[in-house]
Amino acid sequence: MTENAATATRTADLLVDIFREVLGLPDLTEDTDFYEAGGDSLTAFQITGRLEEVLGAEVPVSLVFAYPTPRDLAEVVDTDYGRA
Questions:
Q1: 67 dihedral zone (left: phi>0; alpha: psi -120 to 50; beta)
Q2: Three-state helix/strand/coil letters over the chain
Q3: How confident is the model at residue 84 (pLDDT cuts 50, 70, 90)?
Q4: What is the pLDDT of residues 15-46, one digit of tens each?
Q5: Other Cβ atoms closer than 10 A to 13
Q6: Domains by residue range for the chain, with CATH
Q7: What does the alpha-carbon distance between residue 14 and residue 78 come to, in Å, rounded to a whole number?
Q8: 49 vs 69: CA distance, rounded Å
Q9: Residues 40-72: tens digit of each pLDDT
């Protein structure tokens, strides 16, 4: 596995954990859609707030809406914020 792929996997795992906790869905996967899982603007803010705590950087809530699965959001976070 390349370093970039490993980083994306770790970020996706982090996001799955955050999505599970915020949405209250223990079976949520990397490909679960935020909207289909019952996400709304309040939960989107909770997700970005928790992500910001880990990254130490402001993450726009619009990213959750534009990239609604943990896998897709992880790719953007890694690209824009260089999560390691």
A1: beta
A2: CCHHHHHHHHHHHHHHHHHHHHHCCCCCCCCCCCCCCCCCHHHHHHHHHHHHHHHCCCCCCHHHHHCCCHHHHHHHHHHHHCCC
A3: very low
A4: 999 999 999 999 999 999 999 999 999 999 99
A5: 13
A6: 3-82 (1.10.1200.10)
A7: 12
A8: 17
A9: 999 999 999 999 998 888 999 999 999 999 999
